[in-house]
Amino acid sequence: MEQRGDTTVAPPAEMLPLVVVAVPLTSVLVELHLLIVYSLPVAVAAEEALEKTNETLEQRVRERTEELVRLNAELEKAKAVAEDADQSKTRFLAADACVLGRRPLVHGSVLRATGQVGVFLPGAGCYRCLYPVIPDAASVPTCADAGVFGATCGVIGSWMASEAIALLLGQRNQSRLFVVDVEAGTSRRLGLLPDPACPCCGASATIRSLEKSAYTPVVCPTLSPAMSETPLEISVEEASRLLAGPNPPVLVDVRETDEYAVCRIEGSRLIPMNTVPTRLAEIPADAWVLVQCHHGGRSMRVTQFLRSKGFARVSNLQGGIDAWSLKVDPKVTRY
């Protein structure tokens, strides 16, 4: 909506609508013309927030918790989809629906003080090109488990809104992923390419329709004994002890080259996050692998990605190299 003096002017019809799927950050999207908000608890909260913020906003909030398979039909009315779902199954459902319906997707997620915003365009790489399978719930920490810095939600939500507007205006022509670290005050843009082996958009894709049974926890692969016994995350103190032991784990640093030049943990291997999918052969599948970044956000996502690819013994280094400098080796430069 556009404000001209005291008059509210609606955007042109060809720019509408935007579908918003399970977005807890709806308050930052109130200036957009919203058509649908999914997920019952969020839908109710969104409706109340929208009514309080903009009484003139034309809106229809619908509950679709039991009608997931009808999402494709709803997408036919939409120009784009914005998703910031709390549950993995909802996130993958939205992503798959966008591929099948050939609609662009704006994705957002937050963990502690880090977050990511993904823009996935039809035929240019999808969410499953990054994360092929729905992760086991036990392998993904929730905000309640790991905590979340409130300001990060505002940053990611606002960024999502900006990307959604850019999509509606035709200003995006390639898929991309933005990784934001609010604590460090940094952001990085990573280009995305389609994965030929992607189960949803690849040449031999196996996902051809939305089936409700496909988005229940039972579709998650059963954890191998090694993966079940390997902690998802370990402290820097524990990592220091392990690295000094007789059979040290492999330490993979997923920061960028310029960050690695500033400081590094002795013995680490540099494989920047955006190169991991093409360098899997450099990561031993039969050894315990510790993944490390600046503060632990990027490395957690790489840890989840590697586990989804079948690497059974992978753990995230909690707090990253910054925590290592504070608690283990103060000689490591902080930045």
State the total count of DSSP E strands: 14
- Give the overall form: globular
Number of domains: 2
Give a quick account of the main beta sheet: strands, pairing sense, barrel closure: 7 strands, mixed
| Count of helical regions | 11
CATH class of the largest domain: Alpha Beta
Secondary-structure element pattern, one letter each:
EEEEHHEHEEHHHEEHEHEHEEHEH
Share of residues in strands: 15-25%
Strands ordered across the widest β-sheet = 4-3-5-6-7-8-9
What is the mean predicted local confidence, pLDDT? 76
N-to-C terminal Cα separation, in Å? 41 Å
CATH A-level architecture of the largest domain:
3-Layer(aba) Sandwich
Q: Roughly how much helix do the residues carry, as a percent range?
A: 25-40%
**Derived structural class:** alpha/beta
What fold name goes in the CATH topology slot of the largest domain?
Rossmann fold
Structural account:
The protein has 2 domains: 2-219, NAD(P)-binding Rossmann-like Domain (Rossmann fold), CATH 3.40.50.720; 225-327, Rhodanese-like domain (Oxidized Rhodanese, domain 1), CATH 3.40.250. Residues 1-17, 19-41, 58-68 and 218-223 have low confidence and may be disordered. It is an alpha/beta fold and 335 residues long. The strands form 3 sheets. The protein has a 7-stranded mixed sheet with strand order 4-3-5-6-7-8-9, with helices on both faces. Strands 10-14-13-11-12 form a 5-stranded parallel sheet. Helix content is 30%, strand content 18%.
